[in-house]
Amino acid sequence: MDFQEKLVQGLISKYGTDRENLLPILQGVVDQERFLSEDVILKISKAMAIPAAHVYGTASFYSFLDTEPRGKYVIRICKTITCSMKGKNQILLAIENFLKVKVGETTIDKKFTILQTNCLGWCHKAPAMLVNDEVYTELTPENVVDILREYKEEK
Amino acid sequence: MSNMVNLSINGIAVSVKEGLTILEAAEKLHIKIPTLCYHKDLCIAGNCRVCVVEQTGNNKLVASCATPVSEGMEINTNSLKVRNCRKHIIELLLTEHREECTKCYRNGHCELQELSAEFQITNQDFIDLVPDKNYTVDRISPAIEKDDSKCIRCQRCVRTCAEIQSVGAIAVSHKGSEMKISTFFDRSLDEVVCTNCGQCIVHCPTGALTEKSYVEKVWDAIADPDVHVVVQTAPAVRIGLGEELGLGSGTRVTGKMVAALKRLGFDSVLDTDFTADLTIMEEGTELLTRLKRALVDGDTEVALPMATSCSPGWVKYIEHKYPEYLPNLSTCKSPQQMFGALAKTYYAKNIDVEPQNIVSVSIMPCTAKKFEANRPEMKDSGYKDVDYVLTTRELAVMIKQAGIEFEKLNDEHFDSIMGVSTGAGVIFGVTGGVMEAALRTAYEIVTGREVPFDNLEITPVRGLAGVKEASIQITGTKKEWNFLEGVELKCAITNGLQNAHKLMEAIKNGERTYHFIEIMACPGGCLGGGGQPFPVDNEVRLKRMQAIYEEDRNLPIRKSHENPEIVQVYQDFLEEPLSHKSHKLLHTSYVKREQY
Amino acid sequence: MTTTKKQLHRIDLIFKNDEDCKEILRKALSKPNQEIINEMVNSGLKGRGGAGFPTGLKWKLTAESKEKDKYVICNADEGEPGTFKDREILSRVPHKVLSGMAVCAKITGARKGFIYLRGEYKFLVPELKKEIRKFHDILDDLGLDFRVEIFLGSGAYICGEESALFESMEGKRGEPRNKPPFPTECGYLNKPTVINNVETLAHSYTILKFGAQKFRDLGVKDSRGSKVFSVSGDTPIPGIYELELGMTVQDFVDDFGDGDTKAVQVGGASGFLVPRKRFAKTTIGYQGKLTGISLPTGGSMMIFNSSRSMYNVLNNYLDFFEEESCGQCTPCRVGCQQLLKGIRAVKRGEKPTSYLDKLMKLTETMKLTAKCGLGQSVANSFSSIVENFREEMIY
Q1: What span, in angstroms and rounded, lies between the C-alpha atoms of B244 and B213?
Q2: Start and end of every 4Fe-4S ferredoxin-type domain (chain B) (predicted)?
């Protein structure tokens, strides 16, 4: 049994096969794999007896349930009004320069994906971003590079 | 007795049953409220918002399809506010919609087009959103085409595929401006669990889902002096075609249809009903053989219940969803494919034409038949058994193109051979019909007597109910069938794949046991097929059903085994049911398919 | 520095640490249901998520339902731009929210509760789980059969709409349902459900502790009690503030502005933009008309100074709505796209200025016909910005 198979089975036995457990199961996969592959969705669809197109349709509704491959660290920079007013674009530019990829792209070593997202709820400490589930606020073009350097240099 | 609710619509008082919607109440007053996402076959979505109406005391407009009536309600369906909003909504839909009406397959049959005409959307100047949309058009399937640029996101197809058919090949994906109707990871319809049943087409208000048309190919063949073009017509076409040509629902037009086909230039106009009768001979014998193996030989490997295999939508469904039950599926090809295999062998020999010079066309109430004809297995004649499949709707197009005044035509008769039909063949077009035809023949073979029902009408298998059950006690058997003496033959019949799903689950869980089950993919059976005229609802289906049974009652021969051409084909060519030759030409095998 | 202006009345009820939670709960749970409902109704508490439905009535309607299974759901899908107070409440005084849920469960007969927490706040989960475990022990001591679970969202603003939230919890796309039926009758899993905003539940704790009168004493007619405000934008002191309802925007700007305030967005992107000339005439609260207009709000106050382009602000909001609309209903899905593309076209000179009037009419249609509050409220910011800053919108 491969890793994915185990992951899906583990989540199914933890939550059960009722439709109301679909989101926690999809989230559980994303926690590990950072995205939902065709294989994973198919496995979940079979185990929960939900048509695969419907699992895909549901996943694609939620911005945190990616259906495209993502890096180990998904950077989500808030682009909503306050962060935008407080220099989101400069932060994004600094990140793009540092990681050498554009927003929407993943680094070649599959370590980072840069995305923009809607309001993260840190308007009083704008600009803000998430790296996976971790929140970083009051970003500057300098400190954001320091933050990402730590991730980059981690083994 | 349920409670009545009093309300007024456009100043007219009305009293309706509690629980009805404003839309339904308005219908009673003969007030039409425009709709798009609403369909009588489906659950309420309330998402297009075209049906909004004004309710006194409510500062918002309400969706009449989704709002139940309440006591004292005052509704205005045509205020200035309502009209302006509706107009806006239609305009908005048009900006997401590739407007190429004159080049659209559904030109003249499109609900959006109709509404735009009604509201005279002549000067809409919102921004055209189509150029930025990256719409995809999927033309890979041999049966169904999906053009996202025509889609208005009403989700009727999604509800159809999930609710009526329990397939779920298409679903809503993404959100906001990106929201669309997708298959699993946007694969082609050809790659996914789609059964090609075409119910999505019948329920689509626009040209987003259409059948793949072979009309031009057929015209080419007719015009080619070197080929002999033979056409077969399925039972449900003769009770559906009239509807598409301006006659009322449930008008029987068999003779006119034959006349029209002859005028179109087909070299020979034959009847799928003939191979429906042949199917009964083969499938009935197969059933009796399976029963003998189970009851006499004690063979525990025999797959029972045996399931019918005439409906290609159902066949593909079981291949995807219940592959472990493939041995239960009758090995008989569908009547269309039996016809195709015989057309290029038996028929070719009979008229002395080389099979490679025959083009075999079928007119079907079905889109899955297009897929079926393209299955790689369907070449047992040595050629593609059926070259082109047209739907009832496509035939109507050809008749119109040819300038034939259909309702003025005099009735004509099918050609021969393979043109004689019985009432048993005709009722293949309705849910329960295959079962009824099979019982008419099998019971008589086994007992020497007619089925014990008035006028051969086996009423328990009739009607639009989702799952019907029937059992027939076999007594007074002939000597060679005495192993069936006293056996209660248990049967079940379903229409619509949602019901097939229910039945299969009951069988799988051991809640139900049967000997024989008839499954048709579409609601009502082939008469409600994906290739039939629209709009359709149960009222229309019932009319078509009555027409089929009338057709049966009016035919001189009503049992398959009494069809003289059937007797002849066995004498001259096939020898006997399940013979070596019939196995080669009339039977097939199935494949397990993916579950997405 | 001297000032003649009075400072706004800062309240310290919600975030005040409270050690006697268990005792308050014991007392509340021993009261007859009707008494609690009366307290809640009398307090005048209205939903703090932004829509302002009377909380007591919601509880009452659900309590009256004969259904066996019922649910209490805490809506912590705080996604309105400029709002972050629910996170603060959940991280600082979770026991108040949980207590509110428990009392609601007691009177309605619900045995199961959920906190629908937006995915963006996932980092709160470990701490919150600990609090829930502690709270469950208290409930066991008090003999109330009620359990609370966290349900995590996955990044979809629309799931803050209550019926979309139910759909999401049921494992589906967060598409709002048709109403009626309403949640009190047909909510999560089609069972009667009380769904309250985080702050509403925390206020209910205050009411249980101090009684309805103390809560009623705060605020103004129709807008009783205090409200937690999320203050951001061009202000020297961004953050969370609990203030009395009924203040004017002018009072607010005097306290929080940077001296150069051009406009205040009240209620987030789905709320209204108040320009300087209307500061004095606009109050923050529900319906209760004092002078000028009164704006209900989930508590988002975004301050813009004169360096900000209102075109950019509107463009940002519309970009947000165009993405976050669930996409099912025509006026919202297509309307948002048309508004966004429309203002850009006007700005670029591709459409005449008069096109703005056409778009204004479109927002009116959206307000009248959209299926849920999202599509209906896009008109708010659009019309208030375009009406007041038309000159900034044009080429």
Answers
A1: 16
A2: 142-175, 185-214
Among candidate residues B232, B109, B236, B233, the one with its CA nearest the CA of residue B543: B236
Note whether A81 and A139 are same-domain residues.
Answer: yes
Architecture of the domain spanning B4-78: Roll (3.10)
Any idea which fold C310-394 has? de novo design (two linked rop proteins) (1.20.1440)
Strands (E), C198-351: 219-220, 223-224, 226-233, 239-244, 261-266, 272-275, 283-284, 294-295, 300-305
DSSP string across B540-581: HHHHHHHHHHHHHHTSS--SGGG-HHHHHHIIIII-STT-HH
For residue A24, which residues of chain C lie inside 8 Å, CB to CB? 151-152
Helical ranges in B325-432 per DSSP H: 335-342, 348-351, 368-373, 392-401, 423-426
Task: Look up B550 and say whether it is catalytic.
Answer: no
Of the listed B286, B319, B436, B518, which one is catalytic?
B286
> Where does the pLDDT of residue C1 fall: very low under 50, low under 70, confident under 90, or very high at 90 and above?
very low
CATH code, domain with A128: 3.40.30.10
Contact A64 C123 (CB under 8 A): no
pLDDT, tens digit (0-9, with 9 covering 90-100), for B176-200: 999 999 999 999 999 999 999 999 9
- pLDDT at C291 exceeding the cut of 90: no
The alpha carbon of residue C81 is apart from the nearest alpha carbon of chain A, in Å, by 5
CATH fold for domain C21-216: Rossmann fold (3.40.50)
CB neighbour list of residue B387: distance below 8 Å, 6 or more residues apart: B217, B221, B359, B360, B361, B373
* Candidate from A53, A58, A61 with C-beta closest to B184: A53
Counts for chain A of helices (H) and strands (E), in that order: 7, 4
The predicted complex's ipTM stands at: 0.97
Q: Which of B43, B76, B127 to mutate to test the interface with C (most CBs of C within 10 A)?
A: B127
The model's pLDDT over B390-443, given as tens digits with 9 standing for 90+, comes to: 999 999 999 999 999 999 999 999 999 999 989 999 999 999 999 999 999 999
Together in a domain, A131 and A89: yes
CATH domain B226-596 topology = Rossmann fold (3.40.50)
C119 CA: distance to closest CA in chain A (Å): 8
A54/A104 same-domain check = no
Residue ranges of chain C that CATH labels 3.10.20.600 = 219-305
Residues of C in contact with B81 (CB under 8 A): 368
Which pLDDT tens digit goes with each residue over C342-360? 999 999 999 999 999 999 9
Domain with CATH 3.40.50.11540 in chain C: 21-216
Contact B162 A52 (CB under 8 A): no
Same domain, A89 and A135: yes
Is A67 part of any domain?
A: no
Q: pLDDT at residue B464 above 70?
A: yes
What is the location of CATH 3.40.50.1780 in chain B?
226-596
Chains touching chain C through at least 3 C-beta pairs below 8 angstroms are A, B
pLDDT tens column, C15-47: 987 778 899 999 999 999 999 999 999 999 999
Q: Quickly tell me which residue has 């005048």 as its tokens.
A: C44
Q: Measured between beta carbons, which residues in chain B are less than 8 angstroms from residue C341?
A: 127, 129
Domain span holding position A100:
73-153
Reply yes or no on domain B92-211 having CATH 1.25.40.10.
Answer: no
> How close A93 comes to chain B (CA, Å)?
26
Are A46 and A98 within one domain? no
- Write down the CATH number for the domain with range C219-305: 3.10.20.600
Please report the sign of the dihedral spanned by the C-alpha atoms of residue B286, residue B288, residue B290, residue B292: negative
With CB atoms and an 8 Å threshold, state whether C230 touches A125.
no
pLDDT at C290 over 70: no
- The verdict on whether B154 is a catalytic residue reads no
> Quick one: average pLDDT of B135-146?
97
Do A77 and A119 lie in a common domain? yes
Cβ of C327 within 8 Å of Cβ of B175? The answer is yes
Put simply, the chain A residues between 55 and 114 with a CB less than 8 A from any chain C CB are 57-58, 61-65, 79-82, 84-85
